[in-house]
Specification:
- Heterotetramer of two light and two heavy chains.
- This is Methylamine dehydrogenase light chain.
- Residues 1-10 have a biased composition (Polar residues).
- By secondary structure, the protein is of the alpha+beta class.
- The chain has four helices and six strands, in the order H-H-H-H-E-E-E-E-E-E.
- The N and C termini lie far apart (102 Å).
Length: 200
């Protein structure tokens, strides 16, 4: 085979490769010109901007808010019916978590506090006890209920908590007894609620 034949064959291969590249180049060029002729740079930039904005808004969709609300729910299981409805913010309401075993008028609504007697009354030296679940921290606490005595009963609505209430022959857990013994006056006014310690 002569050198001229080899040159002719390699030239033919180069022409074929050139035609293949040329065909591919022409196809891509036509496609690019078609896209460019039927769309504008502004339209393309607008679509890209819309997708970027949509991507940034995905974390704020209602689905995300719903899942966040589910994680914000209390993680403690209430052990009793009272605890399931108990709250930790308003000590003048009967469903305040410390009042699970109280029976009487709330000193917090009668001029005193959750654990302090109103002016003009004195706390009884004895008390009854209950175990109340705090939904705020998921702990149960031993609570002592002490009557405040010496003035007529407060006119606020009465709260009756019956958790752990025992008959009168178990007086330490009976909330029906007037606990004004030893105060000098057996006139009941209201009841306080003092945390004695952790019951867990």
């Amino acid at each position: 085979m002569s050198q001229s034949d080899v040159s002719a064959r390699s030239g033919t291969r180069a022409e074929k490769d050139g035609m293949a590249h040329s065909l591919l180049d022409r196809t891509i060029e036509r496609l690019t010109r078609h896209v460019a002729g039927h769309s504008s740079r502004r339209g393309l930039l607008g679509r890209v901007g819309a997708w970027v904005t949509f991507g940034a808004l995905i974390p704020t969709l209602p689905v995300e808010r719903a899942s966040a609300a589910q994680t914000a729910k209390p993680k403690f299981k209430a052990p009793t019916p009272f605890a399931a409805d108990a709250q930790t913010t308003d000590p003048t309401a009967c469903n305040y978590w410390r009042y699970c075993a109280i029976d009487g008028f709330l000193c917090a609504s009668c001029g005193g506090g959750v654990h302090s007697c109103p002016p003009g009354t004195s706390p009884s030296p004895t008390s009854w006890i209950g175990t109340c679940f705090n939904p705020g921290d998921g702990q149960s606490y031993l609570v002592a209920y002490r009557d405040c005595c010496g003035q007529d009963a407060c006119s606020q609505p009465m709260c009756v908590g019956t958790e752990g209430d025992q008959p009168s022959y178990r007086p330490q857990a009976n909330n029906d007894i007037i606990w004004c013994f030893g105060t000098g006056a057996l006139i009941y006014n209201c009841s306080t609620s003092v945390i004695v310690g952790n019951a867990s």
